[in-house]
Specification:
Number of strands: 0
Radius of gyration: 35 Å
Distance between the termini: 104 Å
Largest sheet: none
Structural class: mainly alpha
Order of helices and strands: HHHHHHHHH
Number of helices: 9
Helix content: 40-55%
Oligomer: single chain
Shape: elongated
Length: 182
């Protein structure tokens, strides 16, 4: 069996318990108390029981604690997936959207999301979904604009002539007002 990883010498059990009381992150509190159990003379198995984890996880905590101190035991945010578009692709996408399409080159008179998806594939060989393209455009500060639909055969003169121009039917009565009896 391999020897356990030694703990750093600038902390002790009392200090770690005090830090655990003031910590706001429950995960960090659990990790600090597990490491404090080791400082107090407990075995790594006892520390694993305090933390509710296995021995390998306690070893990982000790390594993080040795390199970064108590801050290394904070709960971090998971890195997540790498974004599909890098800075270079985003800058090119912004430039293309701001300049607008050239009908002779791009074959469209206005950009649609599917057109931008096709442009991104032709330019960078990146395949993205409509939702991803829409999210990227919103992140760049662009909004979807759609023109109000107009019927191709609408006649403005006929619409003006059709509007009602008759006088209002309701008029104020001419009879004398009665004095208020209160």
């Amino acid at each position: 069996m391999a020897a356990p990883v030694a703990l750093r010498g600038d902390y002790d059990a009392a200090t770690l318990r005090r830090l655990a009381r003031s910590a706001g992150d429950p995960g960090q509190v659990r990790r600090l108390l597990a490491v404090a159990a080791i400082y107090a003379g407990g075995s790594r198995s006892e520390a694993a029981a305090v933390g509710g984890v296995g021995l390998q996880t306690v070893r990982d905590w000790v390594l993080r604690f040795n390199t970064e101190g108590p801050a290394g035991l904070e709960t971090g945010k998971a890195p997540g997936n790498q974004p599909l578009l890098g800075e270079r692709e985003r800058a090119a996408l912004r430039r293309v959207v701001e300049e607008g399409p050239t009908p002779a080159i791009h074959g469209v008179v206005r950009w649609r999301i599917v057109d931008l998806m096709q442009w991104l594939w032709e330019e960078f060989r990146l395949s993205v979904s409509k939702q991803t393209m829409s999210r990227e455009l919103r992140a760049l500060g662009f909004r979807k604009l759609s023109a109000r639909p107009r019927h191709h055969a609408k006649n403005e003169a006929a619409a003006v002539a059709f509007k009602k121009t008759s006088p209002r039917m309701w008029r104020r009565s001419r009879r004398a007002r009665l004095p208020a009896s209160r």
